[in-house]
Amino acid sequence: MREYLVTVLLAAIITYLVTPLVRDLAVKSGAVAAIxxxxxxxxxxxxxxxxAMWFAMALTLVIANYLPLINKSFGREAIxxxxxxxxxxxxxxxxxRFDLDPITKFAGQALSxxxxxxxxxxxxxxPINGITTLPTNIGQLLTVIFVMxxxxxxxxxxxxxxxATGIVLICAASFFxxxxxxxxxNGLNRAGAxxxxxxxxxxLCLGFLPHNFHPxxxxxxxxxxxxxxxxxxxxxxxxxxxxxxxAINEGNGGNALLPLLLPFSILAIPLLDFVMAILRRxxxxxxxxxxxxxxxxxxxxxxxxxxQRTTIVLYLWTAMFAFPTVIAAFVxxxxxxxxxxxxxxxxxxxxxxxxxxxRK
Length: 360
Known about the structure:
- By secondary structure, the protein is mainly α.
- The protein has one domain (2-290).
- 70% of the residues lie in helices and 2% in strands.
- It is built from 14 helices and 4 strands.
- Strands 1-2 form a two-stranded antiparallel sheet.
- Helix 5 crosses helix 11 (268-283), helix 10 runs antiparallel to helix 13 (307-328) and helix 13 (307-328) packs antiparallel against helix 14.
- The termini are far apart.
């Protein structure tokens, strides 16, 4: 655990120090977010936050490679995730600068998922009529779809200062806790790609958040949103690979299936916002990717909440789904449900305290 804490700290410090330099570079390069009708920010703000995260990740992995335990995590999967992340980072940087069309971005996202497949990162089984081992081509197709959905879900939710950064931080922390505890309890190797990558993502978000929380000095942009979405989705897929599907039966099926269910519960808020946006726009006869001001954060702000409070509410809602799912794997279910209720109650208090002040 100490080596993972060192990894988190390294990634956080490097990200924090590098981000101002990347901000200056983004301004000089013209990668600046102009103010659009759907935006909440009031001043043009530099993008390319993903470049700072990528640089911090690369340097962190180079240093962490010298740690005895972490060194064992540098296998084929970790290399594939880094290369895929590098590809999608540059795609995002181009989009931040030149505003690429959706088809080009989708093609790039699919190619980034293809890199994961080359390195053996794919969905292997699904809980259909028990446990069904997927044919290779079906598993590969589902992997590409899953990666693209997560990437775009994170991108869609990136609408307020610090919102996507904090949500990914909570997701990464939940993934790390689950993968590490799963290894400890079951006597598995604690040095694996899921734990390593999620530890790095935690550090990246911690280091970037001070620059990105309201009022944001820099946005992560599509470069950061797609980069983080790729890392989270790849970590989720490699995590399912740690579970022996043949060992799942009626007695232990609930806990064993959690690695497969975990991504959907942890990413519930981004995925919900993504699905609602697609359905809303299609129903209105518009393109699914035609932006609007009807995202969850827009609706919450219309209750009278500030950017900061809206962001905190969505942090709490993310934790409300994520933390109980992780806890349920290791403690009685009632305790997990109770923790979720407490987190939800905290979000209600934040909302009510704000709306009460607005009415006054």
